[in-house]
Amino acid sequence: MSTAVIAKQVAEINSANRILVASFFGLVMGGICASAAFSMGILKFTPVILGWILLNRTVMGAAIGISGLKVHWAWNGIVIGIVTGSVFSYYLFMNVSGLLPAMNAMANGVFGLLIEFFTTVVFKQPSLAMQRGLRAA
């Protein structure tokens, strides 16, 4: 087995680890988001809304794990968080009146940043751009 083949297999394992870690922290952030929203009375608890929040944040984590943007890790989390979280913001815009959709849009960037922080800094899972040898800002 050549060194290039071994290096490719190790990179694939690292990529899978990053995606799993980021998805897990997305689920954790979903639990935190749902707990805060329900306990503060921002959203009324229903199993559908709970599932929607958990799914949205888990998908956000997976997207952050998959992302290969060539930007600093913090910006990667913010950008991907806003983009993937916009689906939930749109859902809120269609179903809830007031400032909640706009507040959620901003919170998406914060949750994305937290997911990326725990994935990249705490659990030391480098971005796919770094794994492929590309320079991140």
Folded structure, characterized:
It is a single chain. The chain is mainly alpha-helical and 137 residues long. It has one domain (3-131). The chain contains five helices and no strands. Helix 1 packs antiparallel against helix 4 (100-122) and helix 2 (47-66) crosses helix 4 (100-122).
Structural topology:
Elements: H1 3-39, H2 47-66, H3 73-95, H4 100-122, H5 128-131
Helix pairs in contact: 1-2, 1-4, 2-3, 2-4, 3-4
Provide tags for this entry.
single chain; 137 residues; mainly alpha; 5 helices; elongated
Rg over C-alpha atoms, rounded to the nearest angstrom? 16 Å
Helix-strand category: mainly alpha
Q: How many β strands by DSSP?
A: 0
Detail the poorly predicted runs. none
Principal-axes geometry comes out as: elongated
How far apart the termini lie comes to 34 Å
Average pLDDT, rounded to a whole number, is 87
Helix content: over 70%
Number of helices: 5
- Helix-strand pattern: HHHHH
Strand composition percent = under 5%
The number of domains: 1
Reported for the largest beta sheet, the result is: none
What is the compact description of this entry?
It is elongated, with a radius of gyration of 16 Å.
